[in-house]
Structures are given as C-alpha cells and as structure tokens.
C-alpha cells in the first residue's frame, strides 16, 4: 500500500510545460521596468487610528490552516518508525496517539515557563484516520488591559499571571501503515498552536519512548506550486533588496541609505512565472537560495549583490509578496468565513489538500480514511467543557 514517493499532477496546474523540470529552460529575457526605492534613517510616521470608528462588529479574523508532514521516531533518534510497528501496541499509531491525547485532556493544562505560554487540550475525538483536537493556548507574563473597541473604555486589567487563550483546532491524519502522516493546524491570521501542542503531546509520548516530529518543506512546496500555477495568479515583479552597501557590491546612494530596493516590473508575467517557479524548486531541493537576476535580464549585478529577493504576485487584483530564502515560505490556506470555524467546516476545507499531499507521499487511501464530523467518536472532553 504505502508505495514509493512519486510526483503527481497537482490541482490547478495549467497544461503546458511543467515547472517541475530539473533544468527549466530560460525563456527570452523579458522586458522590465525598474524603479529604485531608497529607505533612509528618518522614517515617516503613520497617522493614529481613531478609536470608536467601528460601528458594526462582526467576525473579522482570517481563518485558515497549515499542513505539516508528521512522522514518529524514538526520543533521541530521527529514524522513522512505521505506524504499524509492534512496539506501538495492538492498535498501532491510532491507539498510541489516542492514549496520548486523552492524557493531555485529563492533565488540565500545562505551563511552559521558558516561553511564558500556557496550553490545555479541551476536546479530542477520532474517526477514520483523523484525530481531531481542540486546544486553547496563549502567552502570559505581560500586564495588559481588555478594552471595548467601540467606546475605547477599559473593561478590566489582565495581570502578568493571566493568559489570554486562543481556541484552535488541530487534525492528526495517521494512516495505520507506512511512516507518513499529516498534522493540519487551524490558523487565525498567521497564529497557530502547533509548537505548544506538539510539545504537550510529546510529553505524554515520552513515557512510551516515542517522539512525534513535523516537517513542512514538502507540504509547503506542494501548496505553493499548486497556488502559483493556478491561472488566476500572475508574477508581477521581482524585488532585489540591499541592506548593507559596501564598496565591492552594487551600491545605491550614500551612507544615509539603510535599505535599497530594486523593483523589476515584468511585462510577460506568464512565461516568467514558469521560469521563476522552476528555478525556486531546483534551488530549494539543494537548500540554496535561487538565482533570479538572470531570469529577468539583469546584467549589471548578480544575486550576490543583494541581501534579499522578493517575488510580488497578484491574485484578484490583490498583491502579495514572497520572501525568497533557502526553502519555501510557510503556506497558509485561507478559509473565507463570516463566523468562527467549526470542525465540520475545517474537515471539508482541508480534505483535498490532505489528499494531494498523501498522494505525493505515495499513501493509498481507503474509502473510510476521512471522517464526517458528526460521526467522530469522542475520546475525551475537559470537565468544564461538558457543562458549557
């Protein structure tokens, strides 16, 4: 069943040349329009926001989710353990992880002093390959106030020993064979509870000598390629940023300039997009920063002359920027909603993405792998959750 890893067509990829070729061909150099932005020491102050401007308050948080590959090892080893290994017990990975999350619900919450963070697991349920967790977590240690955003009035103080908790869901997708699973974390904005929850779950697993680990390179690569290859997304410009000018490098301005940005606005975004994506994937597989200047006809300077590279892309007339480093940046799948996310919606929104990643990992799925929210079995619920 769990065969070798393979490449598959991802959803949304247009027909034509694939951006996954190991050596993407370089198209004719596109016409570009360049502008230079200089940032000096004196910065412009932004006007203050006016308190009381909001007259109608609704659900304004941007919900979404991140996808990680999850795998199991021993505590001090990175050797992956199959999910049906006899040492995990008669029920394999599902039995091991179910016991761990029940332990965390019953624990009632943990304080992590080094990071000033509190986390508790409120609810755990299971169905198919999925264990769904609802956890509440947040930082403490800073005195703050609760303020009415309409009137500006202070409602109550928050002491340094009080934690303000975000309530978020996490899905563990764990096949009963092979070594490849997924962790899908609900996000609000760019915030999620993955690090704290993983630490908490591993606290329970360590009693059995196991450790759950995550990696995001493959899942972020799949998500970015799927998204950027879609027809509605265009690469608009490439930005080359220099923070620290020096005599042996390209220099813009004198010592008063703290940052210079060279913006190369592209005229043939479609062809350039294929080349940029191919170059990024080729470099990231070798843990290198991709070289982009030659793709847009830069001859006076090379990639080493700049400290940062950014790609500006457009979808639905909205511009976003990718900072190009040595690996794919974190990809957050956004969910449009005017109300707080529930388990049924999260399961429906992330199923296709989970399926695409598992297919890339070579994991065959039975018809019962993905659950329906209302049919999931309750493993444990925090006591005061029952009475609410």
**Strand fraction:** 25-35%
Give me the oligomer status. single chain
Helix content: 10-25%
Based on CA atoms alone, the radius of gyration comes out at 24 Å
Describe this structure as you would to a colleague.
This protein has 388 residues and is α+β, with helices and mostly antiparallel strands. Helices cover 20% and strands 31% of the residues. The chain has helices at 92-107, 194-205, 217-228, 269-284, 343-360, 383-387, and strands spanning 32-40, 63-74, 110-112, 117-127, 130-139, 144-147, 154-158, 166-173, 181-188, 210-215, 233-242, 257-266, 308-315, 318-324, 333-335, 377-381. Strands 2, 3, 4, 5, 8, 9, 10, 15 and 16 form a nine-stranded antiparallel beta sheet that branches. Strand 3 (110-112) and strand 4 (117-127) form a beta hairpin. Helix 1 crosses helix 2. The two termini are 43 Å apart. Residues 1-32 and 40-56 have low confidence and may be disordered.
